[in-house]
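ugh ok so i messed up the first submission bc i forgot one of the chains. this is the corrected input, ALL of the components this time, i swear. 593 residues overall. if the numbers dont match what u have on ur side tell me asap before i send this to the collaborators (the ones from the other lab, u know who)
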Amino acid sequence: MKSAFIRDFLNYKTMLFMLIPSLFFVLLFQYLPMFGLILAFKEYTYSKGILRSAWNGLENFKFFFISGDAWRVTRNTVLYNAAFIAINLVLQVSIAIMLSELKSKWFKKISQSMLFLPYFISWVVVGTIVYNLLNFEHGTINTLLRSLGIEPFNFYSDKSVWPFFLVFFSAWKAVGYGAVFYLAAIMSIDAEMFEAAETDGANIFQRIWHITIPSLKPTMIVLTLLSVGHIFRGDFGLFYNMIGNNGLLFGTTDVIDTFVFRSLVENNEIGMSAAIGFYQSILCFATILLVNGIVRRADKDSALF
Amino acid sequence: MRKPAAFQSFLIAILTALSLIMLAPLIHILSVSLSSPLYAQAKLVYFWPKGLQFAVYKKIISMDEMWRAMGVSVYITVIGTLITLALTSMIAYSLSRATMPGRIWIMRLIVLTFILPAPLIPGFLLVKSLHMLDTLWSLMIPGATSAFYVIIMRTFFRNVSGELFDAAKMDGCGEAGIYFRVVLPLSTAVIATIGLFHAVYQWNTYFSALVFIRDKTLYPLQVLLQNLVAKKGLNNFMGEVQFELNMPVTPEMMSAGIIIFATVPILIVYPFLQRYFVKGAMLGSLKE
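and heres the new structure output, hopefully the right one now
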């Protein structure tokens, strides 16, 4: 109905005005470049630009999939992300519950601040700190080992130890930050619920299990779904700053995003990079639709859309 | 309740241990930067400086490029955070009003950008064609509206009581009046929270600076830091420098000092925002 539309428009023109700046930037900087995904099927020449470069079918995808790199980096990316999602979720929820159960206000304030501290530290800094701790010649750990008469260990040439360090530092940086969302959700639980539970004789653990954790469920689902939406994207900052261009470690540490970065910087592989970007977007999109569908079936209100 | 005192001690023990793990690397770095080179080189410094001295910081504050990069980082952090807060609070407010037509679709459009971020090369070409390469706008504008922030702010605004809106309308407030006079003053918590998240993001900006900034005078601190310490570090730069007794600082102490210099300014923000913090981080259902 046209008249209703015009009436709406007049009623909401202030709100429309408030929407427009953000919407404009989202359309310009997020949606417009998405059309550039067609670059995956083109032989890009700088002078011709994206639109006028010639189509070349699946040529850009060929090398990535034939060389075996696709399997290796996809596997690493998904396994790391799955580990990050699961471990960080458990730690974040546990920390939030522990903080909320503390009786001492000042201790709660201080420990919450300490746990949040690593969020401020950039990956560049974390990478440097880790290097200072672990390097073979002068690293703090190896110097300590030598002074105790133990053989030093060359961490930077052994790829089997890195999954542990990467998961550890991902958790180190993320748990305090993530716990804040769960703590906020716990604070909004009606205090009467806890009082009622206490009157009924529930102990601390029963209270946590039957009241706190169920009321955290919506927050857990939203945060996990959002992370699952990125499961085919490696955290470039983490992996690049911890590993750099150390080929000895790539077997267990190379993720899709670091692989793309190297092919762009070292070999100027624009076509292949675009093809991999396309591959990631399709997989992420399919995964989020699938997982969101499963969540919606189980609990309609918790799904993202 | 069963043995509440024992349970409290248990919590305090675990949280203290976790806090120490979080704090240890920074205390170590700070101690190294403040120790005398003799101890630092011999790796005898752990969590307390030995042979306290400030030579590293004297050197750092005499480096012009450090101050220039600090200026760039402060600028993009302050301006970038203000832009993001203005844009996000406006769109989140209009999407939070239950009567706003089309809000569900606009919200979906925004959430989708979280799952499908702009691809790298087309994004670069767009920034280039807008003549934003080698400007600080390229570090602030493309990421100014984030789906995650919109979700958090919208959740918060929706919990502001509808009765207040009706009262404001009775007093003759329009939508803009409600936003400025009712919603914003009640939303300090969420503004502080998103402000802190985005300030940290801007302060730690380095990938977009690697991509968009060629001009060395426009490098933010993190890029300078990476050029000075991390890159060389990974190529074994400690091994190349021979230790000399008369050297006032070792390269490792230097990198420790630069890390502290590049990290402390953003840490200063936290105590001011801490009390608003937890209340602002609510993540509700995305649905109506």
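quick check: Chain A touches chain B through 106 residues (CB under 8 Å). that seems consistent at least. Strands of chain A lie at 42-43, 54-55.
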